[in-house]
Amino acid sequence: MPIAIASDHAGYSLKQVLSAYLREQGFQVLDLGADSPVVSVDYPDFGFALAEAIAAGRAERGVAICGTGIGISIAANRHRAVRAALCHDVTGARLARQHNNANVIAFGARVIGEAVARDSLAAFLVTPFEGGRHERRVAKL
Ligand code: RB5
Fold it and tell me: Could you give the C-alpha distances from 117 to 76, 77, 108, 134, in angstroms and in order?
């Protein structure tokens, strides 16, 4: 199943970097835009498109990127099917999977370096949900 990825203009460059990384790792990438770093677009449109792809089963996991990661993660989290975690480091990415069973990782392209974003995405993709006591908490979301 492909990994869906979406950004606004501010997240475009990091989206291209992370898409290339995913393809190198053998993943199929479902790129939902944006298509340019210079045409100003609205992050909710891309957060909603990502959420709809997850909800429709077109992707199991997603990556959402805007300038801070805040707006697009808020947008994606409006959908019941999405648990989007805004991550700034590998530890947060790992715990977002282990404790929160997050299915979308969000990044702020203006606040994170490419290497940390890539390593955080790698951790997010390989880390399983721990279940146990976290199952009950996630069910309450
Ligand atoms: C776009 O300028 C910026 O507001 C957006 O990328 C994001 O940071 C919003 O949360």
Answer: 19, 20, 9, 25
Q: Which CATH number is 67's domain given?
A: 3.40.1400.10
How many structural domains is the chain composed of? 1
Single-letter residue type at 105: I
> Among 38, 43, 46, which is best to mutate for testing ligand 1, by the most ligand atoms less than 8 A from CB?
43
Rounded to the nearest angstrom, the distance between the alpha carbon of 76 and the centre of ligand 1 is 14
Residue nearest (by alpha carbon) to ligand 1 atom 9: 71
8-48 confidence digits (pLDDT tens): 999 999 999 999 999 999 999 999 999 999 999 999 999 99
Which regions of the chain are under pLDDT 70? none
For residue 116, give every residue at least 6 positions away whose Cβ sits within 8 Å of its Cβ, in sequence order, or none. Answer: 88, 89, 90
CB 71 within 8 A of CB 7: no
Identify the domain containing residue 109 by its residue range: 3-139
pLDDT for res 1: 86
Q: Quick one: tokens of 132?
A: 């146990």
d(CA 80, CA 51): 9
